[in-house]
Amino acid sequence: MLTKRIIPCLDVKDGRTVKGINFINLRDAGDAVELGAMYAEHGADELVYLDITATIDGRSTFIELVRRVAHTINIPFTVGGGISSISDVSALLHAGADKVSINSAAVRNPDLINELSLEFGSQCIVVAIDTRYTLTENGHEHLVHTHGGRKPTEIRTIPWAKEVEERGAGEILLTSMDTDGTKNGFALELTATVSGHANIPVIASGGAGNMDHFYDVFTTGKADAGLAASIFHFREIDIPDLKKYLNERNLPVRMTK
Amino acid sequence: MKTVIIKYNAGNVQSVMYALDRIGASYLYTDNEEEIRSADKVIFPGVGEASTAMNYLRKVGLDKVIPSLKQPVFGTCIGMQLMCRFSEENNTECMGIFDVDVKRFPAVPGMKVPHMGWNNIMDYKTVLAGDLPDNAYVYFVHSYAAPVCEYTVASCEYVLPFSAMLQKDNFYAAQFHCEISGNAGQKIMENFLNI
């Protein structure tokens, strides 16, 4: 049976993992390659590496890191952060990434999704959607945000999810800026709605604080995968324990060992 | 031992090379017919779209070379599909090593396509699955699949049962990505290299 995926996310700056609390205060959680290898060994189903360095130098450091990760781990991994062109994607895939995640660039230029999926195949194009429940003149709406969730757009989240699928995205990484960093649980209703509208897998992100939150996002939230960062980095939840917990509750998960 | 990875236009095969590096196997990445024919083992990987890949193989003549190979050949993902007779992906005539047609997953509410993620394979009848635990989990990403047929040596289920692995004479194939399928995938690659 196809299993629900557990995905640790590693925010990377200068080759090291950092995790922002609400994307601002950064704490260091260690070497990005070692941490990834440990997660793979512990039964993580996939990894996501996000490059949060903005400089040109940082970009080449990141590609070198991608190469080291690909050499080391034997599970799929996605890379993202500042990707805006076919040549960016080509360099990252060539370095050994299995998928790339695009975010702000897809909002700026939605045709990029079509171009990338045509060039590299939908299977490796993840569109990241950062969303926040926002007061508009029509009342509260889920709106897409860019620039690490800081900049609101006028794009409504659910139609955008459908659009990215139609343009050729292979997967959606949905981050709720309302729940991110809170440890109060994923945005279940929104995730379920997006997952119900899109016929491609949805990775839920933002808000995981305990093992029940993962159970909820896979059942009520209808997510295909659950992503979290700090709770894994700081060992608040160990992946083998989480897998066992979900397995005991009859959710299909990949048990290793 | 000389292992060749066939070079063609079907996407990025970097992770296959890294996986061989981890096993400690050396390899040559080439589209040269002499090199391919003289190899002990041939790996035919790929990600991408069937008709584009098949057109390329025809253009460079590999569509005739691959089916005529006598040494063990291992096709993975789109490589496996191109070894079948026909693919519904843009109605593509393929190489016909396995006499079976590749079909798109039927649309069923709640069953997303592509079939993406870790799923278990079962009913092994292949040396490639040697030492693998029952119901091993491997990583799939595909929208088209070969139904279970006489060449099926491992099956999987998503919407319908389908062929996870095919085998006929010296030709071996896997629908999933061994190179990123954890220890199970690594074992399958080692088993192929040890044939």
Automatic annotation (TrEMBL), chain A:
Pfam families: His_biosynth (PF00977). The keyword Amino-acid biosynthesis applies. One of its GO terms (molecular function) is imidazoleglycerol-phosphate synthase activity. It catalyses: 5-[(5-phospho-1-deoxy-D-ribulos-1-ylimino)methylamino]-1-(5-phospho-beta-D-ribosyl)imidazole-4-carboxamide + L-glutamine = D-erythro-1-(imidazol-4-yl)glycerol 3-phosphate + 5-amino-1-(5-phospho-beta-D-ribosyl)imidazole-4-carboxamide + L-glutamate + H(+). This is Imidazole glycerol phosphate synthase subunit HisF. It comes from the Bacteria. The gene is hisF. Belongs to the HisA/HisF family. GO terms for biological process: L-histidine biosynthetic process. The keyword ATP-binding does not apply. Keywords: Amino-acid biosynthesis, Cytoplasm, Histidine biosynthesis, Lyase. IGPS catalyzes the conversion of PRFAR and glutamine to IGP, AICAR and glutamate. The HisF subunit catalyzes the cyclization activity that produces IGP and AICAR from PRFAR using the ammonia provided by the HisH subunit. The lineage of its organism: Bacteria, Pseudomonadati, Bacteroidota, Cytophagia, Cytophagales. PANTHER family: IMIDAZOLE GLYCEROL PHOSPHATE SYNTHASE HISHF, IMIDAZOLE GLYCEROL PHOSPHATE SYNTHASE SUBUNIT HISF/H IGP SYNTHASE SUBUNIT HISF/H. It comes from Dyadobacter flavalbus. Coiled coil: none annotated.
UniProtKB/TrEMBL annotation, chain B:
The keyword Ion transport does not apply. It catalyses: 5-[(5-phospho-1-deoxy-D-ribulos-1-ylimino)methylamino]-1-(5-phospho-beta-D-ribosyl)imidazole-4-carboxamide + L-glutamine = D-erythro-1-(imidazol-4-yl)glycerol 3-phosphate + 5-amino-1-(5-phospho-beta-D-ribosyl)imidazole-4-carboxamide + L-glutamate + H(+); L-glutamine + H2O = L-glutamate + NH4(+). The keyword Lyase applies. It is found in: Cytoplasm. GO terms for cellular component: cytoplasm. CDD domains: GATase1_IGP_Synthase (cd01748). One of its GO terms (biological process) is L-histidine biosynthetic process. The active site is at 77 (nucleophile), 177, 179. Its EC number is 4.3.2.10, 3.5.1.2. Residues 10-193 form the Glutamine amidotransferase domain. Pathway: Amino-acid biosynthesis; L-histidine biosynthesis; L-histidine from 5-phospho-alpha-D-ribose 1-diphosphate: step 5/9. GO terms for molecular function: glutaminase activity; imidazoleglycerol-phosphate synthase activity; lyase activity. InterPro entries: Class_I_gatase-like, GATASE, Imidazole-glycPsynth_HisH. Keywords: Amino-acid biosynthesis, Cytoplasm, Glutamine amidotransferase, Histidine biosynthesis, Hydrolase, Lyase. Its main location: cytoplasm. Heterodimer of HisH and HisF. HAMAP family: HisH. IGPS catalyzes the conversion of PRFAR and glutamine to IGP, AICAR and glutamate. The HisH subunit catalyzes the hydrolysis of glutamine to glutamate and ammonia as part of the synthesis of IGP and AICAR. The resulting ammonia molecule is channeled to the active site of HisF. NCBIfam families: IMP_synth_hisH. This is Imidazole glycerol phosphate synthase subunit HisH. It comes from Dyadobacter flavalbus. The gene is hisH.
